[in-house]
Amino acid sequence: MDFNIISDSCCDIPEQLNQDNKVSIVPLSIIMDGTSFIDDEKLNMDLFFQKMKESSKITSAAPSPGLYLDKLKSGACNFIVTLSNKVSGSFSSAVASKDLAEEDKSDIHVFDSLSASAGQMLIILKIKELIASGFAKDEIIAKTEIFIKSMKTYFVSQDLSNFIKNGRLGKVKGKLISVLGIRPVLGADENGDITFYTHARGDNQTVTRLIDLIKNSNKKIEDIVITHCNNSELAAKLRKTIEQTVSLRNIVVAQTKGLSSMYANDKGI
Q: What range defines the domain where residue 253 resides?
């Protein structure tokens, strides 16, 4: 059976990991002070970052079911991996497209990543690995759902202004944290909601806090994905420290695109 993998644009999979073009991306939209940016390969990131700094309000919009329908392949087993349903309507749109397409007997399964960005990429790499190993569709679904529940996602933002602009953090609290130089270490809980884990000050402590979370997760970790927003130096430092601390098969490092950059903000990881 032929397989087709689809994700929304919060998945920051780089070209070198998608040379077989087996992963199709459906764009979300980011709206800043009434101006809409489509999060696709045509997005001008320099203009995007400039507008992000200048804007007073930032929101995002999920892809329509029609955009997912356009990426489905007839006669193939279609796997859709979306941003967590707790932070976006992308999952609901994907499910709606599945319901519409199944009238034509299309074969579709929608995975709620309960995560974002690096987490979505990790799930897709797992699906591709299972396909390459020759597992049947039902086995791939079962093993991937188990993998999603075992996975952990963390992120650190050095600038919380976008959380204030989209209403996820109170203005006074956000400014106070920024003034004190505190970097909240956030992540996804078991339901895919954003939750607070710890905090750090400076790059060295950021790396230490993330390493501690990895070591204390009590999870069997084989692969790690690091995504960063214009912060290759910190990403490289984190990667080197992980390699010296944890035995892994693979570490992937990638630059964030539009939606992930909105959440991580400049220098986030």
A: 154-264
